[in-house]
TrEMBL record:
Species this protein is from: Paraburkholderia translucens
Entry-linked SUPFAM superfamilies: UDP-Glycosyltransferase/glycogen phosphorylase
Family: Belongs to the glycosyltransferase 9 family.
Associated pathway: Bacterial outer membrane biogenesis; LPS core biosynthesis
Reaction equations catalysed: an alpha-Kdo-(2->4)-alpha-Kdo-(2->6)-lipid A + ADP-L-glycero-beta-D-manno-heptose = an L-alpha-D-Hep-(1->5)-[alpha-Kdo-(2->4)]-alpha-Kdo-(2->6)-lipid A + ADP + H(+)
Pfam families in alphabetical order: Glyco_transf_9 (PF01075)
UniProt protein name: Lipopolysaccharide heptosyltransferase 1
Domain of life, source organism: Bacteria
Membrane topology: Peripheral membrane protein
């Protein structure tokens, strides 16, 4: 086994949680090269992975939104890069048309994807020469590890290893802060995943009483307005300036606690081994949540709004043990 291509195109949280597949493959096949094909929006994240040898990307999302000629040219140029090497296996752990097209265009006689009932878009089946077994009865993240292992003939062992190495920060955002920092990721991609702003403010007040400095990142004008609403009710809370994905990751890495809704940056906090509480309102914590003993936990039933008390109990839980030993990001993650 010399070279394998993983196809997982989007989104932030899904790509973060798929990263342990790389460590699994490299454990099973020492010396193998693992490349990864994704949307350009997430290339930055993949380059933090110490296990990914080559990141292949194209502006698929941007072209779909703007239909610009320059983006189409970039997509066409990316095809030649995609086809630069022949792969022993292509593992599509996304399962939609765009991932299947990437798998089909890459050079390999063995392209493995999900069974039809497990595909996000059933038409994606055209690209595959082989299929994973039936989707296992476990969360989505462990399921990706099992599927890749089935395709390549190895058993999944141990906790997930994310193996991330962030670029060194240009400035130390919290260098002057004496209080531990708690970041609130209140924003989500869909309104039905949001936790009420009044609940965020109540948790912020409780954390301030415990000596925390609360910070609020945002990504759009609407999210900034919501952050300001929360900050107005939490003395000393800071609405952060708009930041890049790398800057947010570096900010997370300097936090003592991350509390957030079901969104990609909270998965990243878990992968970076921060103490993490993920709040589920309309999606399934058992399928998409994060869990690591005394470090990360998910709350909610996916059908109702969790109360403030449940979040505070979860915060107590993830802070109950001594801080984990300093190790490379993800090397002991669970």
């Amino acid at each position: 086994m010399k070279r394998i291509l993983i196809v997982k195109v989007t989104s932030l949280g899904d790509i973060v949680q798929a990263l342990p597949v790389v460590a699994d493959i490299k454990r099973a096949f020492p010396g193998v090269q693992v490349d990864w094909a994704a949307d350009e929006s997430f290339a930055e994240l993949l380059r933090w992975s110490k296990g990914v040898d080559r990141v292949l990307c194209a502006p698929l999302r941007r072209f779909k939104k703007a239909r610009r000629w320059s983006d189409l040219k970039a997509i066409l140029a990316s095809i030649s890069e995609l086809r630069a090497y022949r792969y022993d296996y292509i593992i599509d752990i996304h399962g939609v048309y765009k991932s299947a097209i990437i798998a089909f265009l890459a050079r390999s006689s063995r392209r493995i994807g999900y069974q039809s009932q497990d595909l996000g878009e059933r038409g994606a089946a055209f690209a595959y020469t082989g299929r994973f077994g039936p989707r296992p009865q476990c969360n989505a993240w462990h399921g990706m590890r099992i599927s890749a292992g089935e395709a390549l003939g190895y058993e999944v062992e141990g906790p997930p290893i994310y193996d991330l190495q962030l670029p060194e920060a240009v400035t130390q955002l919290f260098a002057a802060q004496e209080a531990p920092v708690a970041a609130f990721f209140h924003a989500t991609s869909k309104d039905d995943k949001k936790w009420p702003l009044a609940h965020w403010a109540a948790v912020g007040l409780a954390l301030r009483e415990r000596g925390f400095q609360v910070v609020l990142p945002w990504g759009s004008a609407g999210e900034r307005a919501e952050a300001e609403t929360i900050a107005e009710q939490v003395p000393g809370a800071t609405v952060l300036p708009q930041m890049s994905v790398t800057e947010i990751a570096q900010m997370i890495d300097n936090c003592a606690l991350v509390v957030g809704a079901d969104t990609g940056f909270v998965h990243l906090a878990h992968a970076l081994q921060r103490r993490t509480v993920m709040i589920f309102v309309s999606t399934s914590p058992s399928h998409c949540g994060v869990e690591a003993p005394y470090r990360s936990t998910s709350i909610g039933d996916g059908r109702s709004v969790p109360p403030v008390s449940a979040v505070l109990e979860a915060i107590d839980y993830v802070q109950a043990s001594e801080p984990p030993l300093a190790v490379p990001h993800g090397s002991a993650a669970a």
